[in-house]
Amino acid sequence: MINKIDNIFRNRKTDILGEHKKFAVMLLLTKEKGEAHIIFEVRASHLRQQPGDICLPGGKIEKDESPKKAAIREAVEELNLKPEDIEYIGEMDYFVSPYGTIMYPFIAKLNNNSIIPNKDEVDHIFKIPINYFMNNEPQLYEMEIGPNLKDDFPYHLVKGGRSYKFSRGFLKQYFYVYENYVIWGFTAMIIKGFIDTIKKEGLSSSLPSDSK
After folding, report:
1. Where do the domains of the chain lie?
2. Residues 6 or more apart from 128 whose CB is under 8 A from it?
3. Residue 188: left if φ>0, alpha if ψ -120 to 50, beta else—which one?
4. pLDDT digits (tens, 9 = 90+) for 1-43
5. Nearest-CA neighbor of 129 among 32, 34, 33, 37?
6. SS3 6
7. Is pLDDT of 212 > 60?
């Protein structure tokens, strides 16, 4: 038995315990009048999930597809781009949500400013200067998360039963308000992570214009 276990685990690659839905998104950078912007989508109103929400290009990772390839593929499909329009830069830290979702964010430069989004998925796009995020902290709301147990929960198997101190926590929800747009949820969390990272690397709270 031990030898069989040895064969299974000796060269096994680690993964995250449990079943998770995996998604990848692309933070696309573009220049408008020499200033760096981030591209956002407004999801089509007829979509079954999150219609009208603001998001980054991206979607579900297909079977046997890497997160990077998924992010590029989804950006190409949703924005009607060619793969060569996207100049890949790198990856950000990924996020494991308490809802069984893993989000893998990537960063790339867009080499095509003529975007006609796919109306099956995207109502329209808009762009926000990075300097806006550098100079404006998001609103923060801490959303409590914890057990929502039903009456048929097997309390008799837990020491303490109904009096057991089940763990609770808080999920930080960020909100950026830019003109008539509200960016929140995973998208706002990714943007904040992006801004925090570049500030940590020594960039000032206001980026200079790039005329190149």
Report:
1. 17-200
2. 37, 38, 40, 178, 181
3. alpha
4. 999 999 999 999 888 888 899 999 999 999 988 899 999 999 9
5. 37
6. helix
7. no
Q: What DSSP string runs through 112-130?
A: -------TTTEEEEEEEEH
Task: Kindly report the CATH number that applies to the domain delimited by 17-200.
Answer: 3.90.79.10
Residue 13 in tokens = 């690659």
What digits encode the pLDDT tens for the residues 122-181? 999 999 999 999 999 999 999 998 888 899 999 999 999 999 999 888 999 999 999 999
Residues 54 and 32: their CA atoms lie apart, in Å, by 20
Closest CA to 127 of 35, 27, 33, 40: 40
